[in-house]
Specification:
Blueprint: E1 2-8, E2 11-20, H1 22-37, E3 44-55, H2 57-69, E4 72-78, H3 80-88, H4 91-94, E5 96-99, E6 110-114, E7 118-122, E8 127-132, H5 138-153, E9 161-167, E10 170-176, E11 181-182, H6 183-189, H7 194-209, H8 222-232, H9 239-249, E12 257-259, E13 268-271, E14 274-277, E15 284-286, H10 288-299, H11 306-310, H12 314-328, H13 334-354, H14 364-377, H15 382-389
Parallel strand pairs: 2-3, 3-4, 4-5
Antiparallel strand pairs: 1-2, 6-7, 7-8, 8-10, 9-10, 11-13, 12-15, 13-14
Length: about 400
C-alpha cells in the first residue's frame, strides 16, 4: 500500500494505491499525517482512488477522518468494488464519491453536431455521445442530466443519458437513440419535407412554452443566467457595450415557461417521426421570447461556420425558421405576428454575443468576428432595438 500527496496552491490530492486493509491501516494513517504536516495550507482535498483495489473498515475510518478534517472533500475515480463498499456503508450520502468512468473512443465516429459546450458523435446505430469541452466539470455534466430529467418529468420528449463516460480527459454523456437522426440531417436528406418538419419544430417550441415551471423546481431562472453570461463576456467587450446588452435584456417580461435556450436544428433528434430534445445544459424558465431569440440567433444570424454547426446550408436553415415561426404564431393577427418577429430579432442580438460565455477556449478568430459585428448589429441600431424591445411588456 502506497500513499502520495500533491498540493497545488491549496488544491491537494492524496493518491492511494493497493489494498487498504487492517494490516496496513495504522501505517497508512501515520504516512498521511506525515504528508499533511508538510503540505501547507489546503482548501480542497481530493482522494484519488483510481489505484485503490480494496478497503476495509479500518480504511474507511481513515477516509472518514479526512472528511471531518476538510470542508471541501471528495473521493474520485472509485472502482466498482470499492464503490459498493462506500455505498453500503453510507459514505456516498455523507460525502462526494465519484465512480471511475469507463473510457470510450470517438475515433472514426460521425460528428452529429458541434456546439459551444461540446461535440455530439454517433457511436453506432443505437447510441450517440456528447463529448464536453476540455475543462468542463462533473458538476456541469450532472446539471445537464438533471435538467433533462426535469424536462422529461414535465412532459417534454427528452433524451435521457444512461451513462457518464470519459473520452480521453473529457467527460461524455451517452444516450440511447435508436436509429434517430437530427432535424438538420433529416431536412438535408429530404428538403421537400421542409414544411412538415417546420410545423413539427414549431409544435415542439409551443409544447415546451406551454409548460409552467413550478416554484419548487431546480430549473434555473433564464433571465438571471443570461445576465451572468453577458457579464462574463466583459473580457471581450467594453462596459459600455455590456450595458447596451443588459438594457435590452431588462425589457424581457418575467414569466415561468420552460425554455430550452439552444433549440437549433441540430439539438432536435427525430425518432419514429417524433421530435426529441437533446443538449439540455442551458434549460431554464422565463419568457418564451428569450427561447425564440436564442433560436433565431442560431438559425438565422449565427456567427461562425453555419453548415458545420447547424448541419445544413444557411439558406435552408433560414427557410426552416421562417416557416416554423409562422406556424408558432398561427392564428394571431398579421400585425401582431410582424411585431413578434421584430421583437425576437431585436432580442437575438444579446445571444449573438452572450454565447461566448459558454467556453473560455473559443478561437481568437471567432472572438474577433463577434467584436467586429457588435457595432453593426447593436451599437449602430441601439435606439431602434430598445424601442422594439420596450414593446415586449405587451407580450403576455
Amino acid at each position: 500500500m502506497t500513499t502520495q500527496l500533491f498540493n497545488d496552491e491549496g488544491e491537494a490530492t492524496l493518491t492511494l494505491s493497493g489494498r487498504l486493509d487492517t494490516s496496513v491501516s495504522s501505517k497508512v494513517s501515520n504516512d498521511i499525517e506525515r504528508l499533511l504536516a508538510t503540505a501547507g495550507t489546503i482548501q480542497h482535498f481530493t482522494v484519488d482512488a483510481s489505484h485503490l483495489e480494496y478497503i476495509s473498515s479500518s480504511g474507511l475510518r481513515i477516509l472518514l477522518m479526512l472528511a471531518k478534517r476538510f470542508k471541501h472533500y471528495r473521493i474520485t475515480e472509485v472502482n466498482p468494488e470499492v464503490y459498493d463498499v462506500l455505498n453500503m456503508t453510507g459514505f456516498t450520502k455523507m460525502m462526494t464519491v465519484e465512480r471511475a468512468l469507463r473510457q470510450l473512443s470517438v475515433e472514426g465516429c460521425e460528428v452529429i453536431g458541434v456546439g459551444g459546450v461540446g461535440t455530439v458523435f454517433r457511436l453506432d446505430d443505437d447510441t450517440i455521445i456528447k463529448v464536453f469541452r476540455e475543462g468542463t466539470t462533473m458538476e456541469e455534466v450532472l446539471k445537464e442530466i438533471t435538467m433533462s430529467k426535469e424536462a422529461f418529468v414535465m412532459g417534454m420528449p427528452t433524451a435521457i443519458s444512461f451513462d457518464v463516460v470519459k473520452v480521453g480527459s473529457q467527460y461524455g454523456l451517452v444516450y440511447e437513440l435508436l436509429h434517430a437522426q437530427t432535424l438538420s440531417a433529416c431536412l438535408k436528406q429530404a428538403p421537400e419535407r421542409i414544411d412538415e418538419l417546420a410545423r413539427k419544430y414549431a409544435d415542439l417550441f409551443r409544447q415546451m412554452h406551454d409548460i409552467r415551471v413550478p416554484a419548487n423546481s431546480c430549473v434555473p431562472d433564464a433571465l438571471e443566467h443570461e445576465r451572468s453570461q453577458v457579464q462574463h463576456i466583459q473580457r471581450y467587450f467594453s462596459q459600455e457595450k455590456i450595458d447596451l446588452l443588459l438594457q435590452l435584456l431588462d425589457t424581457v417580461p418575467v414569466s415561468n415557461s420552460l425554455l430550452h435556450l439552444d433549440l437549433q436544428a441540430k439539438n432536435v433528434m427525430i425518432q419514429n417521426d417524433e421530435l426529441m430534445l437533446i443538449d439540455m445544459g442551458e434549460v431554464g424558465y422565463g419568457h418564451p421570447v428569450l427561447d425564440l431569440a436564442h433560436a433565431y440567433s442560431s438559425m438565422v444570424t449565427l456567427v461562425g461556420d453555419y453548415e458545420k454547426i447547424i448541419g445544413i446550408p444557411r439558406e435552408l436553415g433560414v427557410e426552416l425558421w421562417k416557416r416554423a415561426i409562422d406556424y408558432y404564431f398561427e392564428g394571431l393577427p398579421a400585425d401582431v405576428v410582424a411585431l413578434r418577429k421584430e421583437q425576437i430579432k431585436a432580442l437575438s442580438c444579446i445571444r449573438n454575443f452572450s454565447w461566448l460565455a459558454l467556453s473560455d477556449s473559443f478561437p481568437e478568430v471567432v472572438i474577433n468576428e463577434c467584436r467586429a459585428l457588435f457595432d453593426k448589429r447593436v451599437t449602430n441600431n441601439c435606439g431602434q432595438l430598445l424601442e422594439v424591445c420596450q414593446t415586449l411588456k405587451d407580450w403576455q
